[in-house]
């Protein structure tokens, strides 16, 4: 029987229509409301001409409306594209040009952004998820307001899609400056969530955090894991992440049973001692993914919340949410203890291979490849990039079997577990965001007056993960200052990609081969950072 | 705390001065140029957690008020004006008690 992601919602609505699916800003949304609203919207989308395989762009902040939009897109046999509403319009415009949405879902609060990106999505219909379209936006010819959507039937709607059809596209940083769209199928998500619900024992009484933004693939697990189990998702306002004590209050007040975030958030909370002894009595499991969780912060958490389990998940977007897991068996006694990424989730395959694609011997560093049920079909309309990293599986005769080259370096320990060691390229993780340094350098080089620029990262002692630093050479009389550069960049890059530290140079230091001497630049930035860190400690 | 509830203690001139000072501090120390005193610092992601810690250090150095992270509310950080109100309120409380104070102290 064909399964689709939206089936979990319809089953949940049949089983317990009045139970709460979403909690956001004190408002509860029931399974029935989520199901019926997405049925109406799916009909409205079809009515505007959206056909199977069309893209529906979500210009929506994290909200119940965004989840209604996701399920409606799936029910209409379309794929959704969550957009980062805090991203500059130039970058969003590039994404829209590539994915050519048939429809954009927006809210009055994102109307200004919509106005700016509209030229990149000519012909797209607009559906306002509010009561009415603001008068200022009447220039859109094809638009629906939520009250128009309400005129459509809330009854079940037939879908044509099968498991292997795409469910959504997630755009990640691309090294040449153009974001890459990772296509994710129903089957990809079904497999991971099936495993996770079983492994973690997620049930209807669970209260699950919704911390990461919706364009970030961890949120896929929060949403579908919740709906598959008939549980509740508690969406966190993004601003809360600034204040560790307010985050702790949220976990307490919402009586969360599951918390899933990137390590930088957990580290931020540990650093500022936001967790009380035996805090969060309801918490059953704490999960992280996206980057390395420093062991001292892990120890802090495990000592304060001893009743919870602690699980490290690992996996790039191209392999859907996570591909491996490691449940930390007990609180590490040693602050330098290395936490592995563990073993493959059901149906996944993790391989550490040498340059000839042969398995690396135990404890020898190799390239990490992933195969199995989570693998994306590839990048949206980019067969070239897809071919570069999705390879034929050399260990089987099946021509359809593929492996994905993650770019991560890893080793298999003598305990059979996999340990991560770093990157073989210039992709980095900063506060959980996956960033190609090349995308930043490309953006800086396009600024008039910039003669040369190099972007490097330094370790800030585990607090923020890596800090992005830019050394630049400006043309005489260009008057380019770091403030000006940051201002210009903020029009093309999201804030998490904008370098935090800057250095103006008369000329770029070169190494013997005539290439930019990045180690030297890193050293200079590191020296500056040490001074800053000592100032930060008394805050 | 909500700064709005306390701004009656401070006069507008003092707030204006604070706004200018914070504006300077953001551009000189954090390399952030803010369009207007009311501009939303949070929505655009201008203030991230690292920038916030740096900001608190600089506010203490410049205005002599210690602001502890655990007593801040999200709305205190919404804009340059809301930060100015917070600092003014803390300075006021400091002047009244003659002792070191923190938010809600």
Any overview of this molecule?
The complex is a heterodimer of chains A (539) and B (105). By secondary structure, chain A is α/β, with parallel strands linked by helices. Chain A has three domains: 148 residues, Rossmann fold (3-Layer(aba) Sandwich), CATH 3.40.50; 207 residues, ANL, N-terminal domain (Rossmann fold, 3-Layer(aba) Sandwich); 107 residues, GMP Synthetase, Chain A, domain 3 (2-Layer Sandwich), CATH 3.30.300. Chain A has a five-stranded parallel sheet with strand order 4-3-5-6-7, with helices on both faces. In chain A, strands 12-13-14-15-16 form a five-stranded mixed sheet, with helices on one face. In chain A, strands 17, 18, 20, 21 and 22 form a five-stranded antiparallel sheet that branches. In chain A, strand 13, helix 11 and strand 14 form a beta-alpha-beta unit. Chain A is globular and about 70 Å long. The termini of chain A are far apart. The model of chain A has no long low-confidence stretch (mean pLDDT 92). Chain B is an all-alpha fold and 105 residues long. Chain B has one domain: ACP-like (Non-ribosomal Peptide Synthetase Peptidyl Carrier Protein, Chain A), CATH 1.10.1200. Helices cover 49% and strands 0% of the residues of chain B. In chain B, helix 1 crosses helix 2 and helix 1 crosses helix 3. The radius of gyration of chain B is 13 Å and the shape is globular. The N terminus of chain B is likely disordered.
